[in-house]
Amino acid sequence: MGRLLVLALVMTVIGVVEGEEVSYDGRSLIIHGQRKLLFSGSIHYPRSTPQYDFSGRADIVRFIKEIQAQGLYASLRIGPFIESEWNYGGFPFWLHDVPGIVYRSDNEPFKAHMQDFTTKIVNMMKSEKLYASQGGPIILSQIENEYQLVEHAFHEKGPPYAKWAAQMAVGLQTGVPWMMCKQYDAPDPVINTCNGMKCGESFPGPNSYNKPWLWTENWTTRYQAYGEEPNTRSPQDIAFQVALFVARNGTFVNYYMYHGGTNFGRTASAYVTTSYYDEAPLDEYGLIRQPKWGHLKELHAAIKSCSSPILFGTQSVHSLGEKQEGYTYQLKSGECAAFLVNKDDTKTVVVPFQKSSYELAPNSISILPDCMNVAFNTAKASLKFSI
Ligand SMILES: *[C@@H]1O[C@H](CO)[C@@H](O)[C@H](O)[C@H]1NC(C)=O
Ligand SMILES: CC(=O)N[C@H]1CO[C@H](CO)[C@@H](O)[C@@H]1O
């Protein structure tokens, strides 16, 4: 199908209305009464990309509404640079032809495009009442992504850009908090959050006492590139880090990925395989991968049964040995939850805690929702899941 042909058809319709038409004689087509010499080029529009495409798999409004219908919350990580092993980090390729543009920097053309896109997404969400402030499921949003990793490359153009991004986002008035992952100096009121495999150990915490400890990306495995072996991360290791993060004040953990899916079409970035995070708790096809899925489900249940002390209690940290420590959260009523941590990966140890003693497997955390009985140990993946 030719685009010029389409235009001609459109013009014919207009022409009829205005009493003009496309006709011909023995010499040429005649448009608006004039003979025309035309050149035409074919374009199959489904083979090219429209500038904004929210159709089909990209229908974000439909997806967020489905999240709400399932009784879940959403954390909307807008980017617009998302990395995510997506081709060009999610940017459209035409962006690099904008005169004078420098991505992710204090650069006017880039900032204008970033603001346009972010505003568009926010307005789409607002007009469908999808923010929690409007009764919708979105409780958090993210601007930029792991910017601190590259910030130094932009020299003096980096810090003002990060600051601008935060202010621009906050200015969009969504009624829910914004966060920046891996951006230790995220300006108030934006929350700096942790990404990584070991946020239980590596996260220094939020940059202000009135910000919560949030873990925006917990890498359940690692994406695969062609020629590499699949990366596996054991459920015991994931559970250990999640339990440690919660023991150390964490109150939000997002698994990256929980379900990776497929890189359709040309969306995969260089060398990344078409199956994305197939080793996640839900595999490429959305099927449950055991024992990972089941072990995390039991971990979540154990942590949830500690909710009141974690959310309202006072935290204290006790040394239980050279590589062992206990974290407790205690309410004024006496209600108490404990996490007993053994960081020694070589041996099982017996540690005293309160009026009892506990056996801790190597590299494990025991969760005691009443500070007495062990409800879960991160190193013990239940046999029924392994089968
Ligand atoms: C948890 O938060 C409290 C209050 O902000 C702080 O005193 C404590 O040091 C934090 N715990 C850890 C392990 O950082
Ligand atoms: C190791 C790993 O999986 N890192 C991922 C962290 O999350 C970003 C997306 O925001 C991915 O691009 C990284 O590859």
From TrEMBL:
InterPro entries: GH, GHD, Gly_Hdrlase_35_cat, Glyco_hydro_35_CS, Glycoside_Hdrlase_35. It is found in: Secreted, Extracellular space, Apoplast. GO terms for molecular function: beta-galactosidase activity. Residues 1-19 form the signal peptide. Residues 51-302 form the Glycoside hydrolase 35 catalytic domain. Its main location: secreted. It catalyses: Hydrolysis of terminal non-reducing beta-D-galactose residues in beta-D-galactosides. Coiled coil: none annotated. One of its GO terms (biological process) is carbohydrate metabolic process. The keyword Kinase does not apply. Keywords: Apoplast, Glycosidase, Hydrolase, Signal. GO terms for cellular component: apoplast. Belongs to the glycosyl hydrolase 35 family. This is beta-galactosidase. It comes from Corchorus olitorius.
